[in-house]
Design goal:
Blueprint: E1 8-16, H1 22-39, E2 41-50, H2 62-75, E3 79-82, H3 88-98, E4 101-104, H4 105-116, H5 120-134, H6 138-148, H7 166-197, E5 201-206, H8 212-223, E6 244-249, E7 255-260, H9 270-275, H10 277-284, E8 288-294, H11 300-313, E9 321-326, H12 352-366
Parallel strand pairs: 1-2, 1-3, 3-4, 5-7, 5-8, 8-9
Antiparallel strand pairs: 6-7
Helix pairs in contact: 1-4, 3-6, 4-5, 5-7
Amino acid sequence: MSKRTTWEKAILVAVKTGTAKEAEFNSSMQELAGLAEAAGAKVVATLTQARDKPHAATYIGKGKLQELEHLLAEKEPELLIFDSELSPTQLRKLEDKLQIKIVDRTLLILDIFGQRARSREGLLQVELASLEYRLPRLTGIGKELSRLGAGIGTRGAGEQKLELDRRHIRNRIQEIKRQMEKLEKTRELHKKQRRRAGYPVISLVGYTNAGKSSLFNALCQVAHSSGQPQVEANRRLFQTLDTTTRKIKLDSHYEVLITDTVGFIQNLPHHLVAAFRSTLEEAVAADLLLHVVDLADPAYLDKIKVVEGVLEELGAEKERIMPVFNKVDLLEGISPIQAPPNYVSARTGQGIEELLGQIKNRLEAIS
């Protein structure tokens, strides 16, 4: 990750409900810290509370709210990051009480997407999701962001100060949707051209940071005409946002198109799913989906369920999904000889040649 000259100091706030398992809650908090770092925040403290459910008005209870006020005075952060999506009422009351910039999990993810989008369609999709999130929260968040100006929480809808009235936002939402319809028609045309060319399409899907981009590069280094990596890959959450497609050879005669896609995450904001739906649906309409799993992640089984849930929601056919277990080099006790054929290491190249053969066999079986 490139060095930053400035970081925004942040305190994480979360409620552990009665139904949440300890391991799931800890995993969610670790993920929230990773998201905060990806957005440009330095976590200086964490405050949690065990409750049957979040407080309807202020998310955390009265006693915890006082504790948070003391923590603010001690740590002097620039923002608070909440692990859940806050209601408009919760956001407004917390801002009035604490007088500090507040970002919830949804806005944090929207902010990261706002930083990472590069293509015109990606930028429009992020702006649409951000505006639809902000519209019901305009009274609170508009006032707060207008006062504070920039930084985390302001980027999803553009870099300008968010002094937009509801009518302006609604008009902009309709304009974005019209532009996206035009882009979708262009994408549909490209899809038809690929079908006429007869190339099977493969999509890499999976939880964010599972190593999809690294695997994409590893496959391209072996099977793309350039023999070179094709996308940026590192450990930042949501490194890939705009899709990338390349042609690779499974053998000397069998060519396919392979696409790297955005990663999934638990509690993926529904605004983002809706805005990116056409892109995601195109990804899951591929002839074969490689579900990339970080086998070295202790929570990989839970993350498999998250991805499977999103794929099911998007209408993916189970017979077209092929699991690929990545980062096998980080596991002890599994030698390259013992490893099953769908165990790979994008970092070392272990199992990549075998995976190409598996992909070919699977495509032939479902064609």
